[in-house]
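Handout, section 4.2: multi-component inputs.
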Amino acid sequence: MAEESRAKVGVLGASGYTGAELVRLLLRHPRADIALLTADRRAGQEMRAVFPQFSPFPLPKLVAIDAIDWSAAALDLVFCALPHATTQKVIKEVLAQAPRLKVVDLSADFRLADPQAYARWYGHEHAATQLQREAVYGLCEVHREAIRKARLVANPGCYTTCAQLALIPLLKAKAIDPDEIVIDAKSGMTGAGRAAKEEMLFSEVSEGMHAYGVGHHRHMAELDQEFSLAAGRDVVVSFTPHLAPMNRGILSTIYVRAVGPAAAEDLHAVLSKSYANEPFVHVLPFGEMPQTRHVRGSNLTFIGLTRDRIAGRAIIGAALDNLVKGASGQAVQNMNLMLGFPEAMGLEQVALFP
Amino acid sequence: MAEESRAKVGVLGASGYTGAELVRLLLRHPRADIALLTADRRAGQEMRAVFPQFSPFPLPKLVAIDAIDWSAAALDLVFCALPHATTQKVIKEVLAQAPRLKVVDLSADFRLADPQAYARWYGHEHAATQLQREAVYGLCEVHREAIRKARLVANPGCYTTCAQLALIPLLKAKAIDPDEIVIDAKSGMTGAGRAAKEEMLFSEVSEGMHAYGVGHHRHMAELDQEFSLAAGRDVVVSFTPHLAPMNRGILSTIYVRAVGPAAAEDLHAVLSKSYANEPFVHVLPFGEMPQTRHVRGSNLTFIGLTRDRIAGRAIIGAALDNLVKGASGQAVQNMNLMLGFPEAMGLEQVALFP
Amino acid sequence: MAEESRAKVGVLGASGYTGAELVRLLLRHPRADIALLTADRRAGQEMRAVFPQFSPFPLPKLVAIDAIDWSAAALDLVFCALPHATTQKVIKEVLAQAPRLKVVDLSADFRLADPQAYARWYGHEHAATQLQREAVYGLCEVHREAIRKARLVANPGCYTTCAQLALIPLLKAKAIDPDEIVIDAKSGMTGAGRAAKEEMLFSEVSEGMHAYGVGHHRHMAELDQEFSLAAGRDVVVSFTPHLAPMNRGILSTIYVRAVGPAAAEDLHAVLSKSYANEPFVHVLPFGEMPQTRHVRGSNLTFIGLTRDRIAGRAIIGAALDNLVKGASGQAVQNMNLMLGFPEAMGLEQVALFP
Amino acid sequence: MAEESRAKVGVLGASGYTGAELVRLLLRHPRADIALLTADRRAGQEMRAVFPQFSPFPLPKLVAIDAIDWSAAALDLVFCALPHATTQKVIKEVLAQAPRLKVVDLSADFRLADPQAYARWYGHEHAATQLQREAVYGLCEVHREAIRKARLVANPGCYTTCAQLALIPLLKAKAIDPDEIVIDAKSGMTGAGRAAKEEMLFSEVSEGMHAYGVGHHRHMAELDQEFSLAAGRDVVVSFTPHLAPMNRGILSTIYVRAVGPAAAEDLHAVLSKSYANEPFVHVLPFGEMPQTRHVRGSNLTFIGLTRDRIAGRAIIGAALDNLVKGASGQAVQNMNLMLGFPEAMGLEQVALFP
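Output:
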């Protein structure tokens, strides 16, 4: 794509939170035009009926996916923000009709490369195994070059982006013991999506905290795959997700043991060096820990590392906005890589605090 | 100032919330450079120590106001986000040293044009009455032309911006009875500033609501002045501010009576027509009411109007982000006007929801 | 019922918030035993599966209403916390089977005494007009004697309890102008119930405020009825409900004009005198305004009154917990009256703040 | 103390959150009378000026500690809710004047039995070492018999109560490896007290999460002492406290490794058996995890335990209300033991949810 060209993009599933966040970012992206928005159950409505914050902005009306003529649409790229399992069928069909279309998929459907791992974690065979093989895992800081050439990118999960950015450089450097990693993660409520469920009502989840999916959360499959790849051996971590009464933000508190004589300061140095030139990963000075509110609305991840009082152990904190770097912001970052745009384009927002 | 010129700007009082919000906006303003940040009690520190969200960005160190050589600084404009009463002394001194400097003042010090009204509401004589006379009241949509030529602009208060945008067109059009206006306003906690006070602690103000300053809030003086100007006669309204457990947002619910045969629909038409070409005021379709969350982080004000069940009466809702259109966003909008920049420059952010 | 007797009570609709609140209060009531809990969709489950806070307490299993043998159940009183419209059919049927059973109904079904007013506000004929005529409106402080003798009590709504306690003494005393009353009410989210609706999700309603039902909220019918009764003439008020990001609490800010020479202090004296001996209504010193958090979890209503700056006008604040005095607490208070128990029995909890 | 006797009690430091919570509980305690409330900076004021929720209740005026004549006061017991370090001097002085007075101290001053450990963690010598030796550590479920006979009880910290109730039975049973314990704790904001600090303002701590005191929080000293006592050997754990945007509640997520062939189910059985007859510790069925909101306002601790996917590892969740079982509720429980009252008296409140 030529340097000054523009891209026509679509969002499949625009009535959910990641869909809305894509629209927020794309509306201000210097080289992307929103040409298509879908929402099957809200087809025919204006986006403002679904998300009133877009009321002042001209946007295409919501349509049903089945009503799209993909070749007439002539899109350069679509973001797919549809539910798990539906997604693989939709993308298979869309790419059959428009094979040159590029796709950034925000669901979990194409994150696992191994069909057997997929079947084990999700309880059914994958419906598009060829695409599964083709898909590139879209953690930009780790798989940047493959993403540039990809047609289909599997945007990572929010929990897993946060934990991977904190741990992958340390695993690659063999600086920590892969057998003693505990990840305690806290997420804001938007991570649970917009489906109307009793357990997500304000009065159910405000003023309290709880863990969920303890011992068997599906995001673990993604962690296993990427951590093992980074370490060059099997890695299985303890991981517990929690819900906190806030809209946005993931905070991962990670307990690790340094290998051999390495001190906490050495681990910090590994992280600092890894991310010295990354636009969206910021390593705090040694001993400072991040807060989710300081990255809210931005595509940044803040990482901090502190010495534990137990010799040889360290505690890492990583914070990101689950809807931005944990979903739609990273999706736009992937689009930028796939379309040859500057990687940070349209993602320069400074965090909204307070 | 030439079309492609850039502006060197400063922020006096950068350690408060409106100061931080100015930095957030100015960091991404295409033609402004942050050349000076002050915070007397934090002088010598980095901005990141005061507001960690700025950690990745290069910013000048915080200095004390007294340490500034104003002619060497060679600024084009300063934003003054200092406490009430201090402000008038500081600005008087600064303008004495740098008479060609432009100033946008976010305090209440220069909002009242009448020295007697000032003395009555604040209990002391104004310390810079000449500047008080010079200052232009900075509600952009109402005083745009005067602002373009001003050296000193008094940025309006958050409550008053919200109420004025809803009512001034109706008062000017003599469409509502000026003697029967009730304004019930709800504000997020950032409106109360960053001073460490017991009554602003999380545990004091979360999970509950209350009114404050009932019957005697100082913002009323500003409303009296501008409403009377708009109506061409004295206007005194009932106004009650409340604190709600949220960070940002003001919601004004306003009860009015239409004059003569005018129906609620006519009032709505007056508002729609007034704001048809305004970039930052959006009038919702008749009968829809705004939510603060849908303007969060943006410079927009949403206004809605609904028929009351009592004949001849209407209920108006107006929502804005108290730190943006209610403070720092409007201050940047004023800067744009004063420096000849496009009025909306650097203020295009779409609201952050959820 | 003899002084030391105990009562066997049931809760129809125990899986909602008012149902849970009834269980919370009844578990610690010295003379009530919970003998029956219903929840049609959760029939067969333990209460702890629906509300884990009851996990340590022995409670009857949830059953379906249709499965109950009302004469075998031999209850003294049931609380009915079922949805609107369903309720009238259920109560009609239950009382047909168990005519000596006493009923406190928490729905809106029996609050309006006038069948025509009911049909106009709800759009259909009432299905139990005879019971509608029999039902006593259960605002204890106003209709105490009728409640003592009632078989069927219509527990008032949360908004209306709050506004009535603030205004009825003033209307009765003809101290305020009935034609110029504006009630601006703010409610916590539990007032909207536990039904899984998108607009009640945490991420939809946290961090923001909005009005709803503007100009046509059904609670107005109840206000019209009771205010007109108190004033001895037709009274129609402006009333706007809002949702605030908190679990519990209603704050009503009420704008009134004193009649004739009466000053705000006189209005305050009327309220103070009216409630001098009431256990659950507390009038704050003149000029102090209430906060919802200070009545949280208690059956108290706090009322404050302040002079407006406009001569002859006053601003009243009233705060209660919508689930206690606004629903289940008042329902227990009604039970106490109906069964001859001390009126405050089981309702002595001190507010939970912070 | 005879079975039907009453106790005259005082609260030193009644203007803080734990002081208010003591008053809330004691106002409804069947055998305690609040005879004294102190608050040095608010001396001479009514309690309602400091905590408006007590406005309807008769309470003694706040006095300064120095103004008290301890023998005339003739109290049976005082609760001491004063800041760290001040406390030891005050209690030493008070007990010198009134040697038969019983004291429940809610500060950290008397929790560490070892003067050297105290000096190491707090950086200064203890000012009342004799009392330090006398004091009994007041975790009721563990030290019940010693508490009954104690004159001075050191009420445990909120974090440490939560972690100890989860781990002590497992350590005593030697069922888990003491060298591999990670405690990740999340606390509501009331745990940080009522002092006016910038970092505790609503806008600083709402809508986000962060860890603090990482690697060096003082509560660790208390954990070390009690865990080592339980295990019969030195135990040093990893412990990280976090602040969550809620008022009340501590959630501890604890990662442990079972010893030898023990499975997660065996660990669960140890906990269930230990607490079978405890009124305030409730072990959830295997695999269920607790939520802080389900114990809000109650003296209960909920404990859950789930199998981790890593063989031999388990994840424990423990939830309590930091102001009740984590502070004032446990203090009343201690009072009950010390005065020979039924242990659960006045502590029967059911949790306030939602």
